[in-house]
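> forwarded from #structure-qc
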């Protein structure tokens, strides 16, 4: 079975250094925050090109704490895409603010910047762009728009560590960049982890307080405001420090796999049934967290059958995401309905993500294409065969 993702090849490549780093942390007695976390924060910030990075427990907490550090809460509105993982919108609700969704562009799957201006009100405080599947949002246009309306930008970079927009890393454009080190991510830990990047020293200090219950930096039992427990473990920082120097190579490998899939689709009958993802080579470096095709069909049936058939043929493909955020039950009180965001709704019926990860062999990539060539005609041209 070819999985959609496996962290094992990465671990095997770095086994000796990761094992050594883990044992060093075990022997050090410093398991939470401390020198390893600080070293990782410095190296990660340098890699992204920001002055500060603050290590936290997850990408979700990174987003939550970014909103808290900007004092966004009840009565405020935050604009974001309706096509993302639920963490993006859930945190807006968690701080007491209201998510205001916008639709996406059909080729990039990223939020449609042109749709933003019409939903800005006097309550709007921030925009959360999501660099979905590893493809950078047009940050030139978005920063210009946000400056015009005096809005904060909190970049959701969970899926895009190492992606760039005109040569500049995502996470360095907004007031905050929020990263996830969940094991499947481009830079993955051996458990949960996250970080927030920023160029603002005051915001960095506030974040460092908020991640430890709002305590003062010089007195951990003097609490200035209520925060949460969201500290990065030294073990995760040690692993991330070993992996960080390889991120660029791994992202290049992801792009190479993506190129192989795209060429194979365009050079075969598959192009009549599948639309490969945008590569955006001119403006940005895609981090290809996911390689997501669109099945040329209006209902989800053909896509769902294709996923099943691929599984029978030994290939795991996943649907990211089958339900846009505005139609999630958890957001039913926001008053959105089917039909509000037609592009996201159509895309949710069409998307299918194929295996992509560093260490996916050439033979496995060829097997994925062969499986598609077998599966597509039977499920799309002749559904009764299934
Ligand atoms: C777009 C997006 N935002 C936020 C998150 C949350 O990250 P974490 O799982 O580290 O909390 C994820 C994780 O899947 C994500 O894909």
């Amino acid at each position: 079975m070819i999985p959609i993702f496996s962290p094992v090849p990465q671990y095997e490549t770095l086994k000796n250094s990761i094992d050594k780093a883990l044992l060093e942390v075990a022997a050090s007695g410093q398991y939470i925050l401390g020198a390893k976390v600080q070293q990782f924060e410095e190296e990660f910030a340098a890699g992204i090109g920001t002055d500060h990075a603050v290590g936290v427990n997850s990408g979700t907490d990174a987003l939550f704490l970014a909103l808290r550090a900007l004092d966004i809460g009840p009565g405020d509105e935050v604009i974001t895409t309706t096509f993302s993982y639920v963490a993006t919108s859930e945190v807006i609700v968690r701080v007491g603010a209201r998510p205001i969704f916008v639709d996406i562009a059909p080729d990039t799957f990223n939020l449609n910047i042109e749709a933003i201006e019409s939903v800005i009100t006097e309550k709007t405080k921030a925009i959360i762009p999501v660099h979905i599947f590893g493809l950078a949002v047009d940050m030139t246009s978005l920063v210009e728009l946000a400056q015009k309306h005096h809005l904060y930008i909190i970049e959701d970079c969970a899926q895009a560590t190492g992606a760039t927009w005109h040569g500049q890393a995502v996470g360095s454009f907004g007031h905050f960049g929020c990263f996830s080190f969940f094991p499947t991510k481009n830079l993955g830990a051996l458990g949960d982890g996250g970080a927030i990047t920023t160029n603002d020293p005051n915001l960095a200090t506030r974040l460092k307080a908020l991640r430890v219950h709002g305590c003062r930096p010089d007195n951990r039992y003097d609490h200035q405001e209520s925060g949460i427990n969201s500290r990065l473990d030294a073990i995760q920082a040690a692993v991330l420090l070993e992996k960080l120097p390889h991120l660029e190579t791994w992202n290049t490998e992801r792009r190479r796999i993506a190129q192989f899939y795209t060429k194979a689709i365009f050079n075969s009958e598959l192009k009549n049934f599948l639309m490969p993802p945008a590569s955006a080579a001119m403006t940005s470096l895609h981090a290809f967290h996911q390689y997501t095709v669109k099945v040329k069909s209006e209902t989800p049936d053909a896509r769902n059958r294709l996923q099943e058939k691929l599984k029978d043929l030994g290939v795991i493909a996943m649907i990211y995401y089958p339900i846009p955020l505005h139609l999630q039950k958890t957001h039913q009180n926001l008053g959105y309905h089917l039909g509000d965001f037609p592009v996201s709704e159509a895309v949710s019926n069409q998307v299918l993500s194929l295996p992509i990860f560093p260490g996916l062999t050439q033979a496995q990539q060829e097997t994925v294409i062969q499986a598609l060539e077998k599966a597509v005609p039977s499920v799309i041209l002749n559904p009764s065969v299934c």
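QC bot note: The chain has a mean pLDDT of 96. The pocket of pyridoxal-5'-phosphate is lined by residues 58-60, 84-85, 87-88, 130, 156, 158-159, 180, 182, 192, 194 (CB under 6 Å).
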